[in-house]
User: Fold this.
Amino acid sequence: MAEFTVGATDFLLDGRPVRLLSGALHYFRVHEEQWGHRLAMLRAMGLNCVETYVPWNLHEPQPGRYADEGALGRFLDAAQAAGLWAIVRPGPYICAEWENGGLPHWLTGRLGRRVRTSDAEYEGHVERWFTRLLPQVVRRQLPDGGPVVMVQVENEYGSYGSDGDHLRFLVELLRGSGVTVPLVTSDGAQDHMLTGGSVPGVLATVNFGSGAAEAFAALRRHQPRGPLMCMEFWCGWFDHWGAEHVVRDAKDAAGALREILEAGASVNVYMAHGGTNFAGWAGANRSGPLQDEALLPTVTSYDYDAPVDEAGRPTEKFWRFREVLADYHDGPLPDPPQLPAALGAPARAVLDAWASPDDVLDALGGPEWSGPVPPTFEELDVDRGLVRYQVDVPGPRRPYPLRVTGLRDRAVALVDGERAGVLDGEDTALPEPVPGPAAVELWVESEGRVNYGPRTGEPKGLTGGVLHERQYLHGVRARGLRLDAFEEAGAVGRLPWREALPCEGARGLFRGVAEVASPGDAWLELPGWTRGFVWVNGFGLGRYRSDGPQQALYVPGPVLRAGRNEVWVLELEGCAAGRAVLLR
Assistant:
């Protein structure tokens, strides 16, 4: 029975010093049939460990309704089969550029700023969730023959708060649930972060992308003894929609990695392989002055400019890192595994069937809601998706500006059934005044919940109201459409499909077939489409937007099959030309 412990200067395996050479790979961002390949790539790069988060909201989308609960355990088994140890970071908050930082919408919608604190109701939900989740970890710990060598307490808590009682609660909960391997915290290498996020008796680690000497010096001011570890070595970065693609020079990143290792520290490369934010699970950030922070939605790709790219291929950074890591191994490193099969030939799908937004909402939407003020997405139980709000302008009255306050995030506005504009921003107005009487529809899209900082957990939808001149328009009807409604067996087949309209300006759900001769990994291009979501054979590829920087969506080979492959595109604003998509 092996034992992994924390020594005065090193991690110890059965009493002998050992260094963790870990890489981040999130099981929920990689198709399960490709886990083995990606883990083998980590081994070939020179790593001996894999790290993963656990997204609570993915596994409990509604209170008491669980989804794919055993995924973490299966991934840990795959890691062990690949010859890797494992670090588990179960949260409950994970950040990870993931929707709401992994916290369920139904929890943050109810509790607001009480989450991530010692609030009794919040901690009660955490205890219930951990009691259900942690047995997968406990029975796979190293002393019991499994791969798990460490478990993290919360995540970068010092970047958010200072509730030491809550951190101590989490430590006691983990220990009381049977976690016996070492516990760690991870925070930025700044005094206030380490002060807020550390727990006495629990090993602290730091997160950074460069400047190892300075970061470890900061850690030593707070923790004079114990192994040094960079829990997140940021070797790349993520992208936001509408911004430039972010890259980091491979030689520069390899030099920063070598600096960490030459300091005698352990490391977790974040990300070793980023994967994909399938099914609209990408989060968002806020940037700018606190009183007027802009929303920055994260793209579907989580490639992260990582050593192993989104499709599992080695990059220049992979080979540079392998050169560095080889110096810390006895004997030669294993060769990289064979690349997964690629699509044999391009395939084009003409989306010749169409269902209007109202038809889609009638067939797949939630219950109708009515009240004096607009409900939030959380009140309508919508995590990822959109909401149609309807309100009437009474009349007769002269034309006045129609303004929306507290809008999160983006709305297509219709007046008397005709498109009147696109609203984007917390306080915004239609370009043209609206006379009364008039019927107003606002189709509001969530672009991803904030995953980091003080605005994590903020509500989505119309969080303020609709004003005509300076008068609130009361009497609102609303109906939500969750993205997971499209994944229910036979749901899309119930729609009243008709021949597709000319694409120019059309909104709604489009359907077509791509004939594939030889399936394999592919990229889906959407020339002329504006923004929305895509499914292939019922598998949610994620969000697309024409403003980039991402220009194509990754399609894992296991999603495709020889012959007919059905493609659905939910276009939210109106495609510009054509009705085709291309697999290549």
Remarks:
- The CA atoms of residues 119 and 562 lie 53 Å apart.
- The chain is about 20% helix and 30% strand.
- The chain has a mean pLDDT of 97.
- The radius of gyration is 25 Å.
